[in-house]
Amino acid sequence: MRNRNTIFTTILLACFAISPMAQAVVPAPDGGYPGGNTAEGQNALLSRTTGGFNTAVGWFSLESLTTGSYNTGVGAGTLVLNTGDSNTAVGTGALLLNTTGIRNTAIGFGALIVNNTGGDNTANGVNALGNNTTGASNAATGRSALLHNTTGDNNTANGDSALFSNTTGNLNTAVGTGALNNTTGSNNTAWAFKPAAVSLRPITLLLSARMART
Questions:
Q1: Are 101 and 87 in contact (CB under 8 A)?
Q2: 32 falls in which pLDDT band (50, 70, 90)?
Q3: Weakest-pLDDT range from 8-22, 46-60, 89-103, 139-153
Q4: Which of 11-20, 79-88, 157-166, 182-191 has the lowest mean pLDDT?
Q5: Distant-in-sequence, close-in-space partners of 90: CB < 8 Å, separation ≥ 6
Q6: What is the mean pLDDT of residues 10-22?
Q7: How far, in Å, are 45, 85, 119, 129, 136 from residue 132 at the CA level?
Q8: What CA–CA distances, in Å, run from 127 to 106, 140, 146, 206?
Q9: Residue by residue, what is the 3-state secondary structure of the chain?
Q10: d(CA 192, CA 181)
């Protein structure tokens, strides 16, 4: 981790050094802290010790982080218990209870709110993956998509309430509102759509014309 921080810092400094337009902002912005960290809000990044390049904006955002790096929390309570790396949470309560899970992305109120150690999850939408705890590598897009998933891995849900009831199933794919009413099954694929209305008038006219000719 120290090597990653050193390399990242070196790149940033090099960019500013070669930029002729780089200059100090007057007045200087507040919220900037050592190690490339930014914090705004009550107790945001309160416990940081050596972690670098974290951004915490909001009440208690990233409050418990000490040595973790590359995390972004925007919104009240985002990543409040987090100690892991490379998590992104945008929206009140997003990734609220995450502790050591890494590389998670949660956008929307309550997205991945109770995730604990699960990693590499992506949740876009209010309450998306809202009950996930240790499940990993899941992708949920849409309100309440994969809402009840807890430990299932490698699931993909696109659409409002897609894979809504999945709890421990793995490797499922659901596309469309309410697609795949699955709980524990694995390796399923489902699309939900409303079929277009089909008019029978052209067929009726064609049959009438043929009958008239006979």
A1: yes
A2: confident
A3: 8-22
A4: 11-20
A5: 72, 73, 74, 75, 78, 106, 107, 108
A6: 39
A7: 24, 18, 10, 5, 9
A8: 9, 10, 9, 51
A9: CHHHHHHHHHHHHHHHHHCCCCCCCCCCCCCEECCCEEEECCCCCCCCCCCCCCEEECCCCCCCCCCCCCCEEECCCCCCCCCCCCCEEECCCCCCCCCCCCCCEEECCCCCCCCCCCCCCEEECCCCCCCCCCCCCCEEECCCCCCCCCCCCCCEEECCCCCCCCCCCCCCEEECCCCCCCCCCCCCEEECCCCCCCCCHHHHHHHHHHHHHC
A10: 11
**Lookup: tokens for 200:** 């029978």
- pLDDT digits over 155-211, tens only? 999 999 999 999 999 999 999 999 999 999 999 999 986 444 444 445 454 456 556
Look at the block and give the residue holding tokens 């240790």: 134
pLDDT at 22: 37
Residue 172 phi/psi, 5° resolution?
-105, 150
28 confidence band (pLDDT: 50, 70, 90)? low
198, two tokens: 């089909």
Kindly give, in sequence order, each residue whose CB lies less than 8 Å from that of residue 190, ignoring residues fewer than 6 positions away: 173, 174, 175, 176, 179, 180, 182
